[in-house]
């Protein structure tokens, strides 16, 4: 869209100005001032009486005297803002079905179904990405849909009109496909499983969900042994042994995710490690940080005996295990375990983001994670519970740090 001329009213720039919308935000230029606003800072977009209104975290902008460009400007902002929100929600690929419906008090909200999620894109912070791998309930009636997830949350959309049936079918087909994929990956790890065992494990460990070894062993001792064999081939092998001293072996949770491509687990942050001083390699640096495609990422959670803290370790097929994260929480243990898995799934397992401080999240290079945090309750909860990291310099220093953090 070309630059539009209009009148701007804000605390930062006022008067006649040029307005330019980009994929990252919008830019304003008057005779005396200029300003750039990132979509990451936008709270709400609105349109009324030929006026475009934008609320941000630091103020508000009102655009008037736009003539015939008023509605096109608003629509262009909606499209660019929605595209940025999709990135922040880690939505990829093409939508399988789309519709417009009502969510809460909002009307005509875009609803989209992808192969792994259902997405709503209102012009504010209430955008939602519902991970279909964690769905445990559908309610389909009166041209509306309610989807429930294993953490007890639910998402509802109403008045879907003629697109109601395609949206429901696409969501249900995607859930079935995700469950079939989970079973396929589980069987690939342990071919001796029966069909019933594989199905039970698929429900217990959808999309990398870390499950207690006790529950895994109840379903299949052979699969539990296969997981432990994988762990033994990584740098997390010693960590797993140490975790058995922190918590009983049955309470340690293990998750795995297959088919990771380049850059898995990295948020792309880079820079020196704040605790060890070592350089953290990233995709941008060209360093080898990731396992090859079709490799496994394994991750472990050890709940402290107090029941209100846990240690989290990640390991890939290239023996990567840079640090252990420790969390302290007030909610029940199973609630935190599930929310941790859901937070990781929501950010495509870019694990740095689950321990970012507010200062780190505010960095320009982390704006996608800042937007994700604004729209994902599980991520906010997990970040708020972060207590510190134990770097793998030596087992003695690591043990001392873990003990300090868990006490």
Q: Mind describing the biggest β-sheet? A: 7 strands, antiparallel
The separation of the N and C termini measures 57 Å
Q: Which stretches of 5+ consecutive residues score pLDDT under 50?
A: 268-294
- Approximate helicity band: 25-40%
Structural class: alpha+beta
**What is the percentage of strand-forming residues?**
25-35%
Describe this structure in words.
By secondary structure, the chain is of the alpha+beta class. The protein has three domains: 85 residues, Roll (PH-domain like), CATH 2.30.29; 79 residues, Roll (PH-domain like); 215 residues, no CATH class. Helices cover 32% and strands 30% of the residues. It contains eleven helices and 20 strands. A hairpin with a 3-residue loop joins strand 6 and strand 7. Helix 1 packs across helix 9.
Task: Write a short abstract of this structure.
The protein is of the alpha+beta class. The chain has eleven helices and 20 strands. The relative contact order is 0.09.
Describe this protein with a few key phrases.
407 residues, alpha+beta, PH-domain like, 11 helices, 20 strands, 30% strand, globular
List the helices and strands and how they pair.
Blueprint (H helix, E strand, L loop, with lengths): L3 E6 L5 E7 L3 E6 L3 E5 L3 E7 L2 E6 L3 E5 L5 H19 L8 E7 L2 E8 L3 E4 L7 E4 L3 E7 L2 E6 L4 E4 L6 H26 L5 H10 L6 E2 H7 L1 H12 L3 H11 L6 E8 L34 E9 L5 E8 L6 E6 L4 H14 L11 H4 L5 H9 L1 H8 L1 E6 L3 H12 L1
């Amino acid at each position: 869209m070309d630059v539009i001329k209009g009148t701007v009213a804000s605390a930062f720039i006022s008067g006649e100005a040029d307005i330019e919308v980009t994929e990252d935000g919008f830019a304003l230029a008057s005779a005396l001032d200029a300003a750039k606003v990132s979509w990451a800072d936008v709270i709400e977009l609105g349109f009324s009486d030929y006026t475009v209104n934008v609320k941000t975290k630091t103020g508000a902008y009102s655009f008037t005297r736009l003539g015939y460009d008023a509605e096109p400007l608003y629509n262009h902002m909606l499209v660019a803002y929605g595209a940025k929100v999709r990135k922040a929600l880690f939505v990829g690929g093409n939508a399988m079905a789309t519709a417009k419906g009502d969510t809460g008090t909002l009307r005509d909200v875009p609803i989209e179904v992808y192969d792994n999620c259902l997405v709503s894109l209102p012009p504010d912070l209430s955008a939602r990405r519902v991970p279909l791998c964690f769905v445990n309930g559908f309610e389909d009636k009166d041209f509306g849909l309610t989807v429930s997830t294993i953490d007890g949350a639910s998402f509802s959309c109403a008045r879907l009109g003629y697109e109601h049936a395609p949206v429901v079918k696409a969501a249900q087909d995607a859930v079935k496909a995700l469950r079939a994929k989970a079973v396929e990956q589980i069987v690939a790890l342990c071919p001796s499983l029966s069909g019933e065992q594989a199905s039970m494990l698929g429900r217990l460990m959808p999309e990398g969900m870390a499950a207690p070894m006790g529950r895994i062993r109840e379903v299949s001792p052979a699969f539990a042994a296969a997981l432990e064999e994988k762990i033994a081939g990584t740098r997390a092998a010693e960590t797993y042994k140490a975790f058995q001293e922190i918590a009983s072996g049955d309470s340690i949770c293990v998750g795995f995710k297959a088919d990771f491509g380049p850059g898995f687990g990295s948020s792309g942050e880079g820079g020196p490690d704040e605790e060890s001083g070592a350089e953290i390699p990233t995709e941008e640096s060209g360093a080898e940080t990731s396992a090859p495609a079709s490799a496994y990422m394994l991750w472990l959670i050890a709940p402290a005996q107090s029941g209100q803290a846990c240690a989290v370790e990640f390991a890939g097929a290239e023996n990567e295990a840079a640090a252990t994260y420790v969390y302290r929480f007030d909610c029940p243990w199973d609630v935190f375990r599930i929310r941790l898995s859901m937070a990781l799934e929501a950010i495509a397992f870019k694990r740095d983001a689950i321990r970012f401080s507010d200062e780190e999240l505010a960095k320009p290079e982390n704006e996608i994670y800042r937007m994700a945090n604004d729209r994902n309750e599980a991520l906010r909860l997990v970040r708020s519970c972060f207590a510190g990291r134990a770097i793998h310099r030596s087992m003695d220093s690591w043990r001392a740090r873990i003990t300090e953090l868990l006490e």
